[in-house]
Design goal:
The chain starts with a helix and ends in a 5-residue tail after the last helix. Strand 1 (10-15) and strand 2 (20-23) form a beta hairpin. The mean pLDDT is 88. The chain has helices at residues 2-6, 25-31, 43-47, 49-62, 108-137, 156-162, 166-169, 174-177, 184-197, and strands spanning 10-15, 20-23, 68-76, 79-92, 96-106, 143-145, 151-154. Helices cover 45% and strands 25% of the residues. The radius of gyration is 32 Å and the shape is rod-shaped. It is built from 9 helices and 7 strands; from the N terminus they run αββαααβββαββαααα. By secondary structure, the protein is of the alpha+beta class.
């Protein structure tokens, strides 16, 4: 009892005949069932026959003394959840495995955040690839600069128009690269105004 009570997540001890001998408060609360409908009942009665069928190949390994950890999406009585399950055999010398500790941690919220971040990263990669393709294939000259006025991209059309290769242009200050000397001061003032006010008229 002390072992299951100290475990994080929903924990129980299951005997060889698939009966739940102990269950911690987190499991009882998560099942929303009174303790008497959990303790002493089989895993099929508590979790459902479909869960019992899914667990069967795992419990066979556990009863041979092998700890098993698995995680993934599954349909539970609480909906489609991402759960990490750890099966730890409990044995006594000369007797063998008496049962196993089952620890289940619901990681749905964490997994959804990870998948959301991965989706955002994928969209950014796709948008970056699309932008790159547009810049590279455009018939118009496209020059991209950063907040300091340094060139970060210089497409083939710009190379032809201004006579600089992309390698030569990258990292250069745009004002000294292509802005005529007599326009540089007004250009730099316009850039400062744009960065501070958002007024795009440079």
């Amino acid at each position: 009892v002390a072992v299951t009570a100290a475990m994080p997540g929903a924990a129980s001890f299951v005997t060889r005949d698939r009966r739940i001998l102990h269950a911690n408060a987190a499991l009882i609360a998560g099942l929303a069932m009174p303790p008497e409908e959990v303790i002493g009942r089989t895993t099929a009665e508590v979790f459902g026959a479909h869960v019992e069928d899914l667990m069967a190949p795992v419990t066979e390994r556990v009863y041979r003394g092998e700890p098993v950890q698995m995680e993934g999406w599954s349909d539970t009585r609480f909906g489609h959840r991402y759960v990490r399950r750890s099966f730890t055999p409990f044995s006594k010398p000369g007797i063998g495995v008496l049962g196993f500790f089952l620890l289940a941690i619901d990681m749905t919220a964490q997994k959804e955040r990870e998948e959301e971040l991965e989706t955002q990263h994928r969209l950014r990669r796709e948008n970056a690839a699309l932008s790159e393709a547009i810049v590279r294939t455009s018939l118009d000259s496209i020059i991209i600069i950063d907040g300091e006025g340094e060139v970060v991209d210089f497409n083939p059309a710009a190379e032809k128009l201004f006579g600089f290769s992309r390698a030569e242009a990258i990292g250069q200050d745009i004002s000294t690269l292509i802005i005529p000397m007599h326009h540089r001061t007004s250009h730099q003032e316009g850039m400062r105004r744009y960065l501070s006010t958002g007024n795009s008229r440079v």
